[in-house]
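Quick log. Single chain, no ligands specified.
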Amino acid sequence: MIETSLISSVDGLHNFVNERERCHFSFDFWNTIAFSNPDFKIERETLLNQFCSTKKNITSVISEISINYNKNMMQLNEVVSTEELNFKLYDYIELSLDYRKQVLRKTNELFLEFPPKLNKNFLEIFDYLNSMSKLNTSSILSNTAFVSGETIRKFLDSVNLRFDFYVFSDEVLLAKPSNGIFQLLLEKSMTLHENKIISNDIVHIGDDYEADVFGALNFGINAFLIGHE
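-> predicted structure:
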């Protein structure tokens, strides 16, 4: 059995790269690449209040749904599309069926208008990796909730961040820390490298110990726990 490890420092990442002819780096998105913009949440709540008839606190409803969904996603691998999750929110806040598509479209526009803030620690690591061997590749492997993988890709394009492929939970209906989504990462990485790498040549980088570190190590992929700013 090939040993994998939790890489505990940026120097450890450097050593990992230098020991291999080629390798693949997988990144989580939320709180790894970028942090949510508080202004987006404020604008989203304002938008929802314009169309719903509930007296409930919308921020609290969003938080409750998000916590329960993340719990089910991580513990039971129960994943739904972003549209379905948002429509569940709209049910709770009594948002008319006539306006749901319009509100979801406007919410996605607000996400790009008030974009996430990039993590400086990620940028330093990403810049370093891009300066190394051209044989190295990178991807995103991330759970999603109210914001779709498609919308996140648009944000990444807007800040000129490019990856070789993307695995978002709402698109593949699999979630971290399940083996299924890491198996997909391995298969896509091997295809990208024409089967010239193995699982021990891959590092998944994220901020959550259970989803990112445990998920990767349990499957047989190296892990790196990134720090916040």
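The chain has two domains: 6-35+117-225, 38-113.
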